[in-house]
Amino acid sequence: MIAGSASACSLDRVSAVRGDEFKLAGEEAALRSADTIAANKLMDRFDDHHSVWLFGYGSLIFKPDFPFIECRPARIRDWTRRFWQGSHDHRGTEISPGRVATLIAQPGATCEGIAYLITPDVFDHLDYREKNGYLRFTTDMTFEDGSGAEGLVYIATQDNAAFLGQAPEREIAIQIAASVGPSGRNSDYLIELAQALRKLGKADPHVFAIEQHLNDLAG
Ligand code: SIN
Predict the structure, then answer these.
(1) What local confidence, expressed as pLDDT, does residue 185 receive?
(2) Is the CB of 100 within 6 Å of ligand 1?
(3) Pocket of ligand 1, candidates 61, 126, 130: which has the most ligand atoms within 8 Å of its Cβ, to mutate?
(4) Range of the domain at 195
(5) 154 domain-assigned
(6) CATH code for the domain in which residue 92 is found
(7) In the chain, alpha helices (H)
(8) What pLDDT is stored for residue 47 in this prediction?
(9) What is the pLDDT of residue 6?
(10) Residue nearest ligand 1's atom 5 by CA
(11) Which are the catalytic amino acids?
């Protein structure tokens, strides 16, 4: 197994993906809170599998600090990436939250990211890392060769305590420019994600617009 970066994924494996509905277990919904570690333990769907695909669309793209067997560019459908989730523990604080990526349901939309094939024991680390509002959901993802797989994705939905919601992209950029947390500057999260998407040959108008506002604010 390797722990690597997005660059470990060759661009010729960028996938054409088809996504399906995410399924949230009732117990998870009941346990939804600012700290999702306990709720995520209930998502035991893949625990008896040797390996499982994890779809990453935010920091999991540019900061894969976990062991994986393989990674491939991938895509899911009917969800779009938005900087609508607050970050109290990575790129901001409780008093001054940053803004990080989550997925918002949007029929017909496509979200490009990277899929990692991991062993289920890696979820202990991931659940801790994603504990500020993110729950594991099952999803279908599609790879460049048209093949697909069912796997998991972390999503911070609007009923989690750290959710901030929609705002004009310039206001999002202003908040990001001002935020810093234990994992570093919030602006680095945005910029590293934008760079990683470009490297994959993928455009995300929302991410790129916030990046442009950040550049304007700095300039
Ligand atoms: C992800 O990257 O897939 C989840 C959100 C994050 O950790 O930034």
Answers:
(1) 98
(2) yes
(3) 130
(4) 6-218
(5) yes
(6) 3.10.490.10
(7) 26-30, 37-41, 59-62, 123-129, 169-178, 186-199, 205-218
(8) 83
(9) 43
(10) 58
(11) 130
